[in-house]
Amino acid sequence: LLDDNPDKDLQVVTPCLDGKFFKSYGARKSFGGQIVTVKCFEDNSRVKELLATDGTGKVLVVDGGASMRCALMGDLIAESAVKNHWNGVIIYGCVRDVDAIAELDLGVH
60 vs 8, 23, 87, 89, CA distance in Å? Predict the structure, then answer.
């Protein structure tokens, strides 16, 4: 991607936090699809809004600025994602209700 677009300002997500790969929270351990992105800082309203829409074949990537002060997704928002057929969510930030999310057919990293 970078080699084919040398004139573009592209960024790459490093798949490591503290030397480890993203932690998996959902029951779906591997997932993929069309990427939808959102940038939000300590406010999960856009995450909630997007996951309430049809997500068939999609993965939401959330840039939460790595904040540890506010969870950007909990069990209710994750249940909405499952109901609306999202394949998964990758969050650069915090999630809560991890025991409940672990039971959902959703990829969450």
Answer: 23, 16, 8, 5
